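Narrative of activities, Objective 1.

The group set out to show that a structural description can be obtained from nothing but a protein's sequence at a throughput compatible with the screening campaign. Below is one input-output pair from the validation batch, recorded exactly as produced.
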Amino acid sequence: MSRLRTFLIYVIWIVLFFIFSEFIIYVGLNSSYRDIERKDNLAQVQISQAQATLVNGRVKGTITNTQELGGEYVRFDFYSERGNVVGRKYVQLQKSMPSQEFSIYLDAEDITSYEVSVTNEIQNDELNIVPDEWTKPEIIVATILTLLIFW
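Output recorded for this entry:
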């Protein structure tokens, strides 16, 4: 009987520790987010949450009257304090629905504001560290040379 009671106490402590750690993680993550400023007046895009930390951001909202918007995508440009574009995300419009909800998560540093616009095409502005035309042996040689330089 005593072992069962000890086992039950251990189980209770483990469950309590799990609940406490989940609460601390939730509070810690959500307290690091701060609101970011919007720079446009596009009425069809209502934002319910626009926040960023030092290393990422999130925007949630609803797009209404999707048939009236002139493009196929809603573009979100994210800016730093100095006005530099630090990230760009797109939401594809679903013309068959009168409104649609969206969530955007972005990995970028020092986001302070964002701008919403409508566009017909996606611009691929991503930085490629390795050129697309390199072959596998060229990549291996470049990696080995880089490691030798830093060693």
